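Record 1 of the preview.
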Amino acid sequence: MMDKLFILCLLGLSMIAAGKMVYTDLDILEKLKKFDVPDDDEDFDNDTKLFDLPSFKSRSSGKNLVNVDTFGAAGDGVSDDTQAFVSAWSKACSAPKSVLLVPQGRSYLVNATKFIGPCEQKLIIQIDGTIVAPDEPGNWDPKFQRIWLEFSKLKGVVFQGNGVIDGSGSKWWAASCKKNKSNPCKSAPTALTIESSSGVKISGLTIQNSQQMNFIIARSNSVRVSKVKVSSPGDSPNTDGIHITGSTNVVLQDCKIGTGDDCVSIVNASSNIKMKNIYCGPGHGISIGSLGNNNSTGIVTNVVLDTAFLRETTNGLRIKTYQGGSGYVQGVRFTNVQMQDVSNPILIDQFYCDNPTSCQNQTSAVKISQIMYRNITGTTKSEKAIKFACSDTVPCSHIVLNNVNLEGKDGQVEAYCNSAEGFGYGVIHPSADCLYSHDDKCLDQSHKPGPVLVTEPGHDEL
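->
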């Protein structure tokens, strides 16, 4: 009965005069509660489903096995196996139903390489061994400043196996200006990049110790990442776990990510992103942004995080934009998230600045609206457990809190709002009265239903 009264009050408060066709708060609430990103399998067929290694060893499997060892790879971790990988790629890419095999129990030293499609149908890249990068930045080919292993223009390709992609990043980290301000600020390679591709699946791999970002999905459509582990030390600079840019219909599921930067970062021109069963820590949390740097336009829409465990991260659920940008973030739902000793658990920051020099005050901003936080529980290291630092000229709107319960170690937690409008229902702790755009008693938090218990995700299994 109380929920019905709440909805009726909210509906009454949200009606707009003059017949203008705009969203009411109730419309936004229902939209965010029901919003999901569909699991679309249309880009995958039965012949590219994941399978075990023995299934393609026999001739009857109909697969064309291409082993990098056949092309002269030493697999001793010292000899340069780059040409063997290039030759094996050329063979596998040009023949249908090929399996490019990196055998288990061996370590292959490979220099920066672009593996370019399109390839024949039903290519599978089976990585069971270790691919390791050269560890000396001074010997890196300058024309590959931003990449190590890049795969582009692929369609319907499966990456799978229990192998490791190791960026040997320690010397790169030591040379970073974020580790030592006397060092020049310059970019470093990404361990694995999927570029301008569609219908790609990545499953089971470990990506670790990248020179900079670990894994980038760029300008691609319909990409699924499952049971992937990403690992870099907590103090390694700019080592984002999975970075999504200019991509649509991306699913991350059952992934364990620990890095020195964002576990997941989603930036401009990305939409329909679904994350489910994500373990994050160490790292900077799960972030949308940064967006709007150097007065650029940033647009991110339709993002779902469903079930996550964040442990000892420097941020939790974060949206970060620079002053002076334009565009919008719209249609985001964070749900069923448990946090343990997380700083800044819920954070919208429209004053983000990560430039070497200070950022100037500007009036334009990336618009942030229709953001829902539902069933968020745990402990925080920050007194401000909820922080919405929004632009005075481009305020945040339609922020919804539902059953949020964040406790501080000393019991002192609070919410902070600047130019943020929205509402909460259910248990909201700390109280986010600063979010409300009016003082109507219909939103009195004494009329709240009981808390919704959130069970801890099975992060130990990831």
